[in-house]
Amino acid sequence: MDDDQEEFTELIPGLPEELALECLTRIHYSAHCLSSRVCKRWRNLLLSKDFYYHRKQSGFTHKAACLVQALPAQSESKPISQPRYGISLFDPATMSWDRLPPVPKYPNGLPLFCQVVSTEGKLVVIGGWDPSSWEPVRDVFVYEFTTQKWTQCADMPSTRSFFAVGAIEGKVLVAGGHDESKNALNSAWVLDIKKKEWCELGRMREERDECEGVVVGSEFWVVSGYGTETQGVFKSSAEVYGMGSGEWRVVEEAWRVSRCPRSCVGVEKGKKGNSGLICWGEVESAVQVGGCVVEVEERTVVMGSEYQGAPHGFYVKEGQNGKLVKVNVDDEYCGIVQSGCCVEI
């Protein structure tokens, strides 16, 4: 139906509101785009935060891994020196793959080293380097699975590269990284996706370039990184921002390996329910180089190579005590993965 068509006064004519709501709750996310065109009331409902949390509480959301992945090379006479990147969607439960449409501003490939996070069913792409000029960008884009469209959000307040990122309940947090002069940063900001507004947070105690962001419950962990004067010497500590307290705290010896934490940090639950950080490149020999990990419910999607120059492998691990099982991937989706996140649609 067209948007200007007469609006329904009931969600589904002839059905009680509660029953109609439950019917719409059970619609698979892949049909949301078409369903949103039925009428304005359906569209507003399907796009609302309350409906998202209702579906989540009812168990009708769907989790998958969103991966910033090298695209297949185009058949051209002139070779391409730099890979192009897009976003692949991998469901480890069904072993199915899909690819999201390109960001309109970057139709030929995403910014290099961009970060991805997800919150309230939306995918957020942030920062990176322009694929043509290699200049750092402050762009922020949001993908709405209901409409299957990208929108541009408020730019990051300042330019930064190789920063930590996380998302909690409609908020996207960034911290650390380095500026255009290669100075490591200790500043942090939070973006309200709905309001499209950035607010500055308190500064971390230390500069942290090439750090990694991990969300544990309602806390944003900024793991390892190094300072301007100690480039390449990764810290063993992490700094943790509490969404409730609005303050940072330092956790010593959180990162016990002297290597870059980017994309390879995992959260392991101890016997007493306590969480600890692990480096997948250290615990799994198959992904020692270029590792990337995305936790999707009880499954963990792990990608990487056994050694420098080895083929890029894809694996799935069932539960905390399971073994890595190699996944056979079609050529279209076998490209190197730079980063990824879990999206709950």
Number of helices: 5
- The best one-word shape is globular
- Helix/strand/pairing category: mainly beta
Q: Quick check: average pLDDT?
A: 90
Given this structure, which CATH class of the largest domain is correct? Answer: Mainly Beta
Uncertain residue ranges: 1-6
- As a percent range, the share of helical residues equals 10-25%
Tell me the strand percentage band. Answer: 25-35%
* Overall tally of domains: 2
SSE string: HHHHEEEEEEEEEEEEEEEEEHEEEEE
Q: Which CATH-level-2 architecture of the largest domain?
A: 6 Propeller
Number of DSSP E strands: 22
Radius of gyration: 21 Å
- Distance between the ends: 24 Å
Strand order of the largest sheet: 3-2-1-22
CATH topology of the largest domain: Neuraminidase
Major beta-sheet overview: 4 strands, antiparallel
Q: What would you give as the CATH superfamily of the largest domain?
A: Kelch-type beta propeller
